[in-house]
Design goal:
six-stranded mixed β-sheet; 16 strands
Length: 235
């Protein structure tokens, strides 16, 4: 079901989409936040919207899935944002193509300055009761064993290679759902899927699942039937 209707601008609360690999109290709750696109005159509002989306929810870890900043002037805002998120749960982050424009090293430094962990080329581990959840970035070379192996990525085109590597869950963003959605067919959103084959909401192949967030923000803030969102995954 595609939620939402027409929206103009970056105002209003974010949709919180829930996806479940397992249910029950043993699940680990990961909040995936992608495509924030912090820019002058809107960073404070976007950060507040994400923080508001967390209220009243139990979160075990926050995953920032790239395209965090659009300009170097917002690196300080990113550090402050991560620092606020750390009051809720550990924060793990990777970069996206917009972060490369600013400078991946500078974005990494801003995340670390806010007490977040940069996992773009490495792995981190979470423990939930007796279960080990591995969080890997898109350039991590080694994939340690764990009960659940999660790839925190940005561009969903990584899906094909990721599932062959043995990931149970691949989280991505980047496409923003293409912002204008006419209909959904076989898990894909159209007309975006005519141009981007991985324009999914979620997709299962064997034991592996791909979940693609429609993102927090856009360069051109016009959407139709494509709500701005964060994704809460129960794994």
């Amino acid at each position: 079901m595609i939620a939402g209707s027409f929206s103009l601008g970056q105002h209003g609360p974010l949709h919180v989409r829930e996806e479940r690999l397992i249910s029950g109290p043993a699940s680990c709750r990961l909040l995936y936040v992608s495509d924030i696109h912090l820019r002058p005159r809107r960073s404070d509002s976007l950060c507040r919207q994400v923080i508001d989306a967390l209220r009243g929810r139990e979160i075990d870890a926050l995953l920032l899935g790239g395209d965090l900043v659009d300009t170097a002037s917002e690196l300080g805002a990113l550090s402050g944002f991560v620092r606020e998120l750390r009051k809720v749960a550990p924060v793990f982050a990777i970069g996206g193509n917009h972060d490369e424009y600013v400078g991946i090293d500078r974005v990494e430094a801003a995340v670390v300055a806010g007490d977040g962990q940069w996992i773009h080329a490495t792995c981190a581990h979470l423990f939930r009761d007796s279960r080990e959840i591995v969080l890997a970035g898109p350039e991590a070379n080694l994939l340690p064993e764990g009960h659940v192996r999660v790839l925190c990525a940005h561009n969903p085109r990584i899906w094909k290679t990721a599932r062959k590597r043995g990931f149970d869950l691949v989280l991505a963003g980047h496409l923003h759902g293409c912002q204008l959605v006419a209909f959904e067919y076989r898990d894909r959103l159209y007309p975006g899927a005519l141009f981007y084959p991985y324009c999914y909401l979620n997709h299962q192949e064997g034991a592996a699942r791909l979940i693609v967030s429609r993102g927090v923000s856009d360069l051109f803030p016009i959407r139709w039937r494509c709500p701005r969102e964060v994704v809460l995954c129960h794994v």
